Amino acid sequence: MLDINKIRADFPILSQQIYCKPLIYFDNGATSQKPKVVIDAITKYYEQLNANIHRGVHKLSQDATDAYEISRGKVQNHINAKFPYEVIFTSGTTHSINAVANGFASILKTGDEVLVSALEHHSNIVPWQMLCEKTGAVLKVIPMNEAGELILSEYDNLLSNKTKIVTVNHISNALGTINPIEYMIKKAHEVGAAILIDGAQATPHLKPDVQALDCDFYVFSGHKICGPTGVGILYGKEEWLRKLPPYQGGGEMIATVSFEKTTYADLPHKFEAGTPNIEGGIVLGTAIDYMNEIGFDNIASYEQELLEYGTKKLLEIEGLKIYGTAKEKASVISFNIDDIHPYDIGTIIDKLGIAVRTGHHCAQPIMDFFCIPGTIRASFAFYNTKEEIDIFVEAVKKAKMMLT
Ligand code: PMP
């Protein structure tokens, strides 16, 4: 059982007033709030540890390097990667996906196929389109049904020996669908394809085990799991990280440089060109510790309660339609009411102190599938409460009344 009042006290921002109303933050899918331990760790880094890493002989640089590498180890343990050097620090999910897609340019040939799912965020579509344009490979889409679930028989049919990489999110940001990635990973491997899992929306709710999953790449962002912005993770199996060329050239990622030839540094540095987000990397470890202390089993079961409660309450509103009714779903509710524009509802409830997301959620193909301009998305975290949901539902009713 979570002590929600105690947890809420960890998050200074949650006691804020917005337009003289207590803040109700239901935009966790976009970014999570930060607990005091994380905020303090950021300050502590700049007050006590700030130095560039991996190259200084001086004490401060060595201490900062140690803290950075300890944090890499924490991420390794958290996702159960086999080796610390399979964990690459990036600036976020988008950067991680681009690094892999860019690397595949050296592998793909004309006529090869890349499979993306219909449920993807733009950051897991556009880099693959760019890759296909560059290489002459063909982008194919795994379709979904009205519930927002991927159609696995179609996935099976699309897979062939032409498929070189499959890319799919673990949890959809727009609809909350939890995808059957275990099955998809197994099937991709049966045809010899690699598979990348976009864990941006999954890592706030669960602890992925990359060895048990057997995925080739798993990517996520620090800012969605109570950590700072501008830091994220690219996990890759060693064999893939060795095979792919580096994404960016520069300092840190080299072994030797001459004007005739450059050789690259070993993993993980090969993929970490330039001065990284040192503070972000270190503090990501603090955020992961914090979430593990709360416990992902507790987080998942409490958020599931919020999801069920919120769904039931919202469906009492006449004309309200929820998009994304998959059997396996995370704490995301995407909805519209009749033909009211989502932005109008979002704007009214904002004035009541409630933060939700409105629009296409960087997933325009999903909106096109449902023939809608966007949705209102409430995404709950472990620090939200049923009382907040009650206030939110009343606010939505009020907005509906004002707009009809
Ligand atoms: N994939 C998914 C499923 C996401 O929800 C997001 C963030 N909304 C991203 C990728 C991109 O993450 P970032 O902006 O942190 O790079």
Descriptive labels:
single chain; 4-stranded antiparallel β-sheet; alpha/beta; binds 4'-deoxy-4'-aminopyridoxal-5'-phosphate; Aspartate Aminotransferase, domain 2; Aspartate Aminotransferase, domain 1; 404 residues
Number of domains: 2
Q: What structural class results from the helix and strand content?
A: alpha/beta
Number of distinct helices: 14
N- to C-terminal distance: 41 Å
Count of DSSP strands = 17
Function: Catalyzes the removal of elemental sulfur and selenium atoms from L-cysteine, L-cystine, L-selenocysteine, and L-selenocystine to produce L-alanine.
Pfam family, one: Aminotran_5
Cofactor: pyridoxal 5'-phosphate
InterPro entries: Aminotrans_V_dom, Aminotrans_V_PyrdxlP_BS, Cys_dSase_SufS, PyrdxlP-dep_Trfase, PyrdxlP-dep_Trfase_major, PyrdxlP-dep_Trfase_small
